[in-house]
Amino acid sequence: MGCGSDCVDACRSGWGIRCRFPIVEPDYGHTKLRLSKEGLEAIQRINTPIAAVSVIGPYRSGKSFLLNQLLSLSCNKGFGVGHMRDTKTKGIWVWGTPVEIDVDGSKVSVLYLDTEGFESIGKSNVYDDRIFALAAVLSSVLVYNLPETIREADISRLSFAVELAEEFYGRVKGQDVAFEPAKLLWLIQRDFLQGKSVQQMVDEALQRVPNSNGDKYIDEVNQIRDSLAVMGDNSTAFSMPQPHLQRTKLCDMEDQELDPLYVERRDALKQLVASMIKPKLVQGRTLNGKEFVSFLGQILEALNKGEIPSTGSLVEVFNKGILERCLTLYTEKMERVSLPVSVDKLQQVHDLAEDEARKLFDKQHFGLQKLWFSQ
Ligand SMILES: Nc1nc2c(ncn2[C@@H]2O[C@H](COP(=O)(O)OP(=O)(O)OP(=O)(O)O)[C@@H](O)[C@H]2O)c(=O)[nH]1
Ligand SMILES: [Mg+2]
To answer: What residues does the GB1/RHD3-type G domain cover (predicted)?
Structure first.
């Protein structure tokens, strides 16, 4: 279902067509991720600052349907929705027309990202973690779509994202904030709350568990909960009732046929998401389409490298690309020297070339400068 092959071909030929593209796809064995060129070429053409909104969550939890609802798209046109096994979302997809909004007087292009669900059969937890980490890293707003209540696995997944954010993007509480972590929106679907507000439920799920016997497992769980406290005000909870009892017919229904309470909450959710969007900042700077794509490429490479990405390796990869650009700049300058040349002149050219390369590095590097000297 969704945009068929003609539509994808049309999308390939230009930006601006209302269509969906993959930006990241699983490799053959469904363990690693690879970039998908078409979607990225389209994103590269965006010149304004970018913000991404991702919907993540378990397999078959209505993520694609929700995104279509947020973008006011029918299932035919929008992201692939389905109850059949072969219609599930694979990798990460983007809606082809960014939504332009105004944030504090500046134009921001918002990309809506649909992700592959967790916990489906035939793939590893590591793969799920990679999808999750990538969405968490790229997004300004992360919508965690849960069909029911919050489970232990959701808590540990989130803590993993927070740890990534803390180590990779800078110390969240410190001064050296290189990267702003995504704002988290817990979206809890269904009508099971039994009098509790969703915020209450999220707060309870995140509370420390008493551990008077010093149980090692409970200790670990509590540590995970502590790391989530970093999210603080960045986490909001929101509930949605079911759109309709006949879940397999949802795609054929107009607004008038859906539960009016659902329609009301969906419209409130649209506004809430819009109010949370801020352009993605890396090292205090916004990213245009090209920068966003290169950032995505670097993170993907790092995530594919390790079983569970060691956050140190992410920083290394990020800096390696920058270092390579600086060394190329240095080499280009040195190659312009025509031989023979005096030692003094050579030293002079070297000093100038090094100075320029170092300035470029200082402008772009991530983390500590010691890397320059250790290479
Ligand atoms: N009951 C109910 N069903 C829903 C809801 N949203 C979507 N569905 C139905 O659930 C099925 C799966 O929906 P999708 O939107 O494809 O779910 P998904 O999370 O994107 O699935 P994957 O991409 O496979 O992870 C479809 O039959 C939808 O019609 C919802 O809020 N409530
Ligand atoms: Mg889907």
So the answer is: 47-167
CATH assignment of the domain containing 140: 3.40.50.300
Closest to 335 measured CA to CA, from 353, 322, 309 = 353
**106: β partners:** 103
What integer pLDDT is reported at residue 67 of this predicted model? Answer: 93
CA of 115 to the centre of ligand 2 (A): 7
Which of 242, 268, 299 is at the close of a domain? 299
What's the Cα-to-Cα distance from 355 to each of 319, 326, 343, rounded to whole Å? 18, 10, 18
Which pLDDT does position 237 carry in this prediction? 79
The pair of three-digit structure tokens given for residue 137, joined into one six-digit string: 């890293």
Count of structural domains, the chain: 2
Take atom 16 of ligand 1 and give the residue whose Cα is closest: 81
Ligand 1 atom at minimum distance from 117 CA: 25
Range of lowest pLDDT (51-60, 134-143, 164-173, 225-234)? 164-173
Q: Is residue 130 part of a domain?
A: yes
Residues 226, 159: Cα–Cα separation, whole Å: 9
User: Residue type for 259, please?
Assistant: D
Q: Predicted confidence band at 174 (pLDDT cuts at 50, 70, 90)?
A: very low
Q: Does any ligand 1 atom lie closer than 6 A to the CB of residue 60?
A: yes
Structure tokens at 142: 């992360």
State the distance from the centre of ligand 2 to the C-alpha of 305, rounded, in angstroms: 26
Query: Has residue 223 been placed in a domain?
Result: yes
